[in-house]
Amino acid sequence: MAQSVLLTGASGRVGQAILEGLADEREYEWRLLDRDPPTGDRDYPGEFVVADITDEEAVREAMEGIDAVLHLAGDPRKTAPWESVLPNNIDGTQTVYEAAVDAGVDKVAFASSNHAVGAYETDERTPDMYREDDEFQLDGTELPRPGNLYGVSKATGEILGRYYHDEYGLSVVCVRIGNLTKDHPPIDYERGQAMWLSHRDCAHLFDRCIRAEYDYEVVYGISDNDRKYYSIERAREVLGYEPRDNSADHG
Amino acid sequence: MAQSVLLTGASGRVGQAILEGLADEREYEWRLLDRDPPTGDRDYPGEFVVADITDEEAVREAMEGIDAVLHLAGDPRKTAPWESVLPNNIDGTQTVYEAAVDAGVDKVAFASSNHAVGAYETDERTPDMYREDDEFQLDGTELPRPGNLYGVSKATGEILGRYYHDEYGLSVVCVRIGNLTKDHPPIDYERGQAMWLSHRDCAHLFDRCIRAEYDYEVVYGISDNDRKYYSIERAREVLGYEPRDNSADHG
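Predict the joint structure of the above. Result:
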């Protein structure tokens, strides 16, 4: 049976990478939501809802009949001010979880971010932690240490997910996305090498978020880079994530 | 030299317990802030500012010349709806941290709550975890698991504190307060016995938050009860907390 998938923030960078990779997947019926209407030069694989993520009524309507949600909508700027992340990222995410529970949705994959743990990159640890022979690694069990207010908002979205899972049984996976770029990061950009998430690995990872069974999880979303200070073991284990790219392969 | 201490939520239950215990402390110059004006039948040991914690300008003004902040203001109801905790507890707390940093404040003690970790009290663990011979214990290093949206807001206040510490060097201690009651809890109320924080231990604990030196800490605020599933070791070690009460002493 086809799965109905709601993708919020469909026009954003992550949303576009997911759609590129999964638009031909015939098992999914897509509903796409974004604040901005689609531009004319592109086909979308499903119904497109133009709505702000803070518009509770529109979000509730978009949630009807949905099995799984990929929640990406929000202010994506790492420099986003509190005045923006409070409504768009924190309040918007609470609206999504609440509507998902009320609509009987099974799963929500929440686009968290490496910025939720950015402050682990201290002066003492860097640049060593960006290098292959360094042993420092985060695996998703550590407490959040946001490096900016955007990261605070993402860590809050994770806690909201924990609550909606514990209280209502919603399956929630929080994906701390690294640096999503179409091309390989420059070989001399050490942090970028360690953080890279390729477009096809991104699409595959969120595909696994739709298909896998889980309770509440926090995983890292990066490719299988030689250099990495985020573990992808939990994503492999729980979601069946099998990345195919590695920033070290060419640059 | 006298320390200037700003106490937000001064008229609330925790604020009153603190003032009862510390009002005669001559080393402190108090500035009290609450949304509600003081009632006529009580003396306050300092200047009283009537302002809402979401009133950024008023909070900034109240922060001038302050050394340490005890931030208690917010909606204290465990059943508080999102529409209240978002502005009052989350946005209000960000306002306090931001104003504290800008005013050059040294320390902020944030009144967090047992509700930030309430969902650890699962059906499988309770009531065993409320009993003396059970080994389950939380010590502040665990990830938040809020049992309600009030708890989500308190966990978010902790993450905000982590950020303002990491980014600006502000000393922050988050106190996950148990059940503060004047009298001993009923002897047959097992959870209450384990959770109890006496008025004098509460005042002493926040006194230590003003005096001690720390970076970023999450501690539990309960008395030295025979039964406890929250560790007070970190509070003892870092803050010099020496509780004098125990819920088991009489009931």
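The helical segments of chain A are 13-22, 56-62, 82-103, 149-168, 190-195, 199-211, 233-239.
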